[in-house]
Design goal:
Blueprint lengths: L6 E3 L7 H12 L4 E4 L4 E4 L5 H11 L9 E2 L15 H10 L4 E6 L6 H4 L4 E5 L4 H10 L3 E2 L1 E2 L16 H6 L2 E4 L10 E4 L6 E4 L5 H17 L1
Parallel strand pairs: 1-9, 2-9, 4-6, 5-10
Antiparallel strand pairs: 2-3, 3-8, 4-7, 5-6, 10-11
């Protein structure tokens, strides 16, 4: 297929429902779609489909010892995906989701081992970017959210910069034009007590730990 035939233009302020639904159908049938997030383009696949996950690893040429985070349609969906949700995690989710914050939980039995890369943990985010939110909601299931690039290469904020090998291998591309680029999501491991900041991204450390300190004070007063 000609690469241009795979591209569907989408606009965050007025998303094309037909393009979103087409992408969701492809994801649900085991395909892989390039889609926009706030900063970079990502690869969306059904996170519960082993064959689809294998495609993502193959497209990215990604080592199997590197985990892949997922996006969920809504906050309550994570209850079926993780072992437990600490009170701290609820506090953080309430404060920052939807948003550019990935939380790492202990993975439940429903999580494919390939997503965790043997760590027993899974990174989850409720996306804030309109197209990403609409796509995961239309799919009605968790989707992968790894960046649309060959492993080790720089992530892409516009379709023209995506490696031709990636473009050739995916089934559809949702093109929202140039994205913001810059810092990715902040990553916080809430499976540990206290939580551990794994990467400081768009949401600064100070904001996160301000929420955590407020929770500690509340607990002490209670």
């Amino acid at each position: 297929m000609n690469p241009e035939d795979k591209i569907r233009k989408v606009y965050p302020r007025q998303p094309c429902a037909d393009a979103i639904l087409e992408a969701a159908r492809i994801v649900c049938s085991g395909g892989v779609v390039v889609f926009p997030t706030t900063s970079l383009y990502g690869l969306a696949a059904d996170a519960s489909n082993p064959a689809a996950l294998e495609k993502v690893f193959a497209i990215k040429q990604r080592p199997l010892d590197k985990p892949i985070l997922i996006l969920v349609p809504n906050l309550l969906d994570i209850q079926n995906l993780v072992c437990d949700i600490p009170l701290t995690a609820w506090r953080i989710m309430t404060a920052f989701w939807p948003g550019k914050l990935t939380l790492v939980f202990r993975a439940g039995n429903a999580i494919l081992p390939g997503l965790t890369a043997g760590t027993g943990k899974i990174g989850i985010r409720l996306p804030v970017y309109p197209i990403a939110r609409l796509l995961v909601r239309a799919a009605g299931r968790p989707i992968t959210a790894t960046s649309a690039n060959i492993s080790g290469q720089v992530g892409c904020s516009q379709i023209a910069n995506i490696d031709p090998a990636v473009v050739a291998a995916v089934d559809l591309i949702l093109d929202a034009g140039p994205l913001k680029g810059g810092a990715g999501s902040t990553i916080l491991d809430v499976s540990e007590n206290p939580p551990v900041l794994l990467r400081e991204g768009s949401i600064p450390r100070s904001r996160i730990f301000s929420v955590l300190q407020d929770q500690q004070l509340h607990c002490q007063r209670s």
